[in-house]
Every structure is written in C-alpha cells, then in structure tokens.
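Alpha/beta hydrolase (Chryseobacterium antibioticum), 213 aa
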Amino acid sequence: MKIYVVSGLGADFKVLERLKFPETCELIFIDWLIPEKNEPFYSYVERMAEKVDVSEPFSLLGYSFGGIMVQEINKLKPAEKVVIMGSIKSDKEKSKFIRTGEITKIPRILPTGMFNDKAANVYAVVRKLFDPKNPKVLQYFKVRDPYYLKWSVEKVSEWKFDEIPEVIQILGDKDIVFPIKYSKPDYVIKGGTHLFPATKHKEVSKILKEVFV
C-alpha cells in the first residue's frame, strides 16, 4: 500500500521521520508547492494532487495543515484510507483564535513581510515555551517563503469543509493549535502537543501500525 504524506505548514518531513509504519507500506512524500500569485485554493490542491497515482490503491496521511490538504486531495482522488494527525476534520473544529481570523479577515490584510525569517525565529521561541521537550522547533520549519506562509495562514482560517466520518483523526490532548475540545478524535495522544509526531513517536507509530494493516 502506497501512503502519500503531506507534512505541516512550512514543515518538511523531519517532524515525521521517527514514525514507524508496517513494512508493507511505501511512503511517498508530497512537498509543499509555492502558490502562484492569486491562485485559487482548488487549483493549488489540483497541483498538489498531481503526484498521486490512482492506478493502484493508496492511502493519504496529513499532519497539521497537511491534514487539511489530504482531505482536499481525497475529494479529487479518493483514497482507501485518510489519516490526519494534529489536524481538523471540518471547519466546525476550528479554535476561537482561528475563527477570529476567518471573521475579521486579518490574515488576508497582514503584510507579506510579517512572514519572514525573523517571524519564524519568534515563532520557534514561542513554541519552545509550550513544548520544552522539543526545543529545536526551527529544524522542522523549512519552507519559509513569505508569500507561501501568508497564503497558508489565510487558507487555514478560510477553510470550509464538511466532515467525512471515515477520516481517521489523531490529536494530542495538549495541542494549542487545534485544541482537542473542539474535536472528537479517533485516537488521543496523552501529553501530546502539536509536535506529538516527533515527541510521542512511539505512541503514534503503534496507532499507525493498527490503522495501516
């Protein structure tokens, strides 16, 4: 079984590198693309989905913003299984903070310059306060194109999606990005912050081996 994997916003696959899958699984990573100027979200999803080969059975796995992306890809190219980690199954699971961005349209009016390397460094310091066991947050934050980052934040805040019950959701109970109180996940990682695929990889790997049998 091929599993197409999309990582989190601005992140490469280092955050997922310690996860273990059944030996029968072949992982294929889909890298984030830089959005074209004023590109509609559906067009971007289509480009992200190009790597998915529908000639044989496959599954989709997404982390954080990648969880949103794989659910969108699944609409174009239906998968055998869709698994999301540290992500939400519908817009009804958005936190109050994200909803504020949706209502006020603040992400849309923020200058692109705010999403530069300096901002990434500040983000890393703040995340370290919430996740002291994983201090090297910046090592996961690899895609730093300001336009891509601003565009991504806009799309998360604007995202509208009806829940698909078959989607398998794994959440950490200490996640402040997508708080568990707004969701009913299939699996809960005790003590897991938003970076639980890296910090709680043994627990997550056990679940993945159950899911991808």
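Residues 119-130 have pLDDT under 50 and may be disordered. The helical segments are 41-49, 65-76, 96-104, 106-109, 117-130, 146-158, 196-199, 201-211. ok done for today
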